[in-house]
């Protein structure tokens, strides 16, 4: 695969994202509405050892950073996750792309939008669920069409306020921790700890997809690796503190299956509680919706360049420098999902498999890279030793596969949808390749 093939959009998309903006992009992808919901579900599996489960989940992502920093310091590109995955297997990369489209467009973005509206209904009772959800999607669509710089500045502002909301939870929460709530530590045994870790993996892995705007990042070869490390450290520190407070201020049995509002009510009240539950919850959803919309436009753009979508989706808006047709398709899919699909939760949970699948393909590509594509490996500004790259990548792959097996047992229907989507993707790849050969 040549450099030109990896960077087909070079010179069209505008380089507007600097280090602070990229860090907030990655932080926003990680800290989404799932933080407010998944922590309670995970606590129900493992009890006070919730923070240990988070450390296990984060370990795979930290190991993955070696491969991701190597790739992005060599060839930063648009839709990098998909393009790097192609270096390992083109059919599986296309399968992963279909899985992401289903998980993000049909599940993730609509689900986060509905969650944001439900938080808004606390502030404004009686506002329509579907109509407001569509309005939010259109709002972020317009922001994304206008340009990547507005996207970045909106992300910076919302992430800063979101982190302040989390700090409001952590600061007063630490003194309110009761030692008796932290024992016994492992209430769910080894299996509960593992299931909890698998659920929490996606709270860390989402930020890895910030690399997908590589061609719109200034000094990308240096900026993206720095942003990966900074954002991951920030996110994991906040997660651990939030989780320790959550299981420390209230018995885990009360918190199990509930949102972070339950422990927050033990030590917050009035405006501070409102800011955390409503402001934090809404902005956690909004930061994720904003960047998922951004990524969806780039995914359709690159997929069109590979011949899997009609040529108009390759167009970049001359005025704003954005893939307007790809963004429009992403909006249409999400609006249809909001209106038509009665339960988005299963589709959203399927995204867990999609994230792990894509990251695993990138790691396998990194493992094979020094021998298959030595020219890419040699040009990396961050170039780990081959042994280090191999060991970290393979350990992370093993952890990811183990997590997928655990999730497949726990989320059977979501796993079936994931497999079906992947098979459709493989069918699409071979169907297009067959048509090209006979053209």
Short description:
This protein is mostly helical and 439 residues long.
Q: N-to-C SSE series?
A: HHHHHHHHHHHHHHHHHH
- Count, helices: 18
Distance between the termini: 22 Å
Give the oligomer, counting copies of the same chain as homo and different chains as hetero.
Answer: single chain
What's the CATH class, please? Mainly Alpha
**Rounded to an integer, what's the Rg over CA atoms?**
21 Å
Helix/strand/pairing category: mainly alpha
How many structural units, i.e. domains? 1
Number-wise, the strands total 0
Quickly give the CATH architecture.
Answer: Up-down Bundle
Average predicted local confidence, pLDDT? 89
Describe the structure.
With 439 residues, the chain is mainly α. The protein has a single domain, classed as Up-down Bundle (Amino acid/polyamine transporter I). 76% of the residues lie in helices and 0% in strands. It has 18 helices and no strands. The chain has helices at residues 3-6, 19-30, 34-46, 50-74, 80-86, 90-123, 129-146, 148-173, 189-205, 220-248, 252-255, 261-264, 270-305, 324-340, 345-372, 374-379, 386-410, 412-438. Helix 3 (34-46) runs antiparallel to helix 9 (189-205) and helix 13 packs across helix 14 (324-340). The longest helix is centred in the middle third of the chain and has 36 residues, at 270-305. It is globular. The mean pLDDT is 89.
């Amino acid at each position: 695969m040549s450099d030109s093939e990896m960077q087909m959009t070079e010179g069209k998309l505008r380089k507007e994202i600097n280090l602070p903006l990229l860090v907030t992009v990655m932080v926003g992808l990680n800290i989404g509405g799932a933080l407010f919901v998944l922590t309670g579900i995970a606590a129900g599996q493992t009890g006070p050892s919730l923070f240990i489960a988070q450390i296990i989940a984060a370990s795979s992502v930290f190991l993955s950073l070696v491969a991701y920093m190597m790739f992005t310091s060599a060839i930063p590109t648009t839709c990098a996750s998909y393009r790097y995955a192609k270096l390992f297997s083109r059919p599986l990369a296309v399968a992963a792309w279909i899985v992401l489209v289903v998980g993000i467009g049909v599940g993730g973005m609509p689900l986060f939008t509905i969650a944001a509206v439900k938080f808004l209904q606390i502030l404004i009772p009686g506002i329509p669920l579907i109509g407001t959800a569509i309005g939010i999607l259109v709002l972020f669509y317009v922001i994304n069409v206008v340009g990547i710089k507005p996207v970045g500045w909106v992300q910076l502002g919302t992430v800063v306020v979101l982190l302040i909301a989390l700090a409001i939870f952590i600061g007063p929460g630490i003194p309110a921790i009761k030692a008796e709530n932290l024992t016994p530590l492992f209430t769910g045994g080894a299996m509960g700890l593992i299931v909890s870790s698998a659920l929490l993996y996606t709270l860390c892995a989402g930020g890895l997809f910030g690399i997908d705007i590589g061609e719109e990042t200034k000094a990308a070869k240096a900026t993206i690796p720095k942003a990966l490390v900074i954002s991951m450290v920030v996110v994991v520190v906040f997660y651990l503190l939030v989780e320790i407070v959550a299981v420390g201020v209230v018995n885990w049995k009360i918190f199990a299956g509930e949102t972070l509002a339950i422990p927050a009510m033990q030590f917050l009240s009035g405006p501070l509680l409102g800011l955390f539950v409503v402001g934090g919850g809404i902005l956690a959803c909004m930061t994720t919706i904003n960047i998922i919309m951004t990524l969806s436009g780039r995914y359709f753009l690159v997929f069109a360049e590979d011949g899997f979508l009609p040529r108009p989706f390759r167009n970049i808006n001359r005025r704003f420098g954005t893939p307007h047709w790809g963004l429009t398709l992403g909006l249409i899919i999400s609006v249809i999902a909001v209106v038509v699909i009665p339960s988005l939760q299963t589709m959203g949970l399927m995204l867990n498999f999609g994230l792990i699948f894509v990251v695993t393909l990138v790691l396998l590509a990194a493992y094979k890279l020094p021998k298959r594509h030595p020219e890419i490996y040699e040009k990396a500004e961050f170039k780990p030793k081959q042994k280090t790259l191999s060991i970290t990548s393979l350990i992370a792959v093993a952890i990811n596969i183990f997590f997928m097996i655990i999730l497949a047992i726990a989320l059977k229907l979501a796993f079936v949808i994931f497999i079906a989507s992947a098979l459709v993707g493989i069918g699409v790849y071979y169907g297009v390749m067959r048509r090209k050969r006979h053209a």
